[in-house]
């Protein structure tokens, strides 16, 4: 096997990228999203360039059932890709 192996947040420090011209698209469990965002922020990426794929608990996908609600956002209606800056406080509040 070639390349790095490990959890994503730990690998961010080994990745080479220019924070001024990079976007990060992150998907996975919310705890991993939080730690990956912390690593990306530490590497100099602005919060607006960290985008989370939040496709979670969708059922109706029309904004009617509320299964995907995350604070004031309905992931099916407002996402499913949302910037870290919009979700940061809510992710920190949810200790999973
Ligand atoms: S999936 Fe039903 S409101 Fe989003």
Class from helix and strand fractions: alpha+beta
Topology, number of strands: 5
Number of helices: 4
In oligomeric terms, what are we looking at?
A: single chain
Overall spatial form: elongated
Task: Estimate the mean pLDDT confidence.
Answer: 88
The total number of structural domains is 1
What share of the residues does DSSP label as strand, in percent?
Answer: 15-25%
Distance between the termini: 32 Å
Low-confidence stretches: none
Please outline the major beta sheet: 3 strands, mixed
Radius of gyration: 14 Å
What order do the helices and strands follow? HEHEEEHEH
Task: List the bound ligands.
Answer: FE2/S2 (inorganic) cluster
Range of helix content: 25-40%
* Strand order, sheet with most strands: 1-2-5
Q: Could you provide a short overview of the structure?
A:
The chain is 33% helix and 16% strand. The chain contains four helices and five strands, in the order αβαβββαβα. The chain has helices spanning 8-12, 30-42, 75-78, 84-93; strands spanning 24-27, 50-53, 69-70, 73-74, 81-83.
Write up what this structure looks like.
This protein has 96 residues and is of the alpha+beta class. 33% of the residues lie in helices and 16% in strands. It has one domain (23-93). The protein is built from four helices and five strands, in the order αβαβββαβα. The mean pLDDT is 88. Bound molecules: FE2/S2 (inorganic) cluster (FES). Residues 58-61, 63-68, 74, 76 line the site of FE2/S2 (inorganic) cluster.
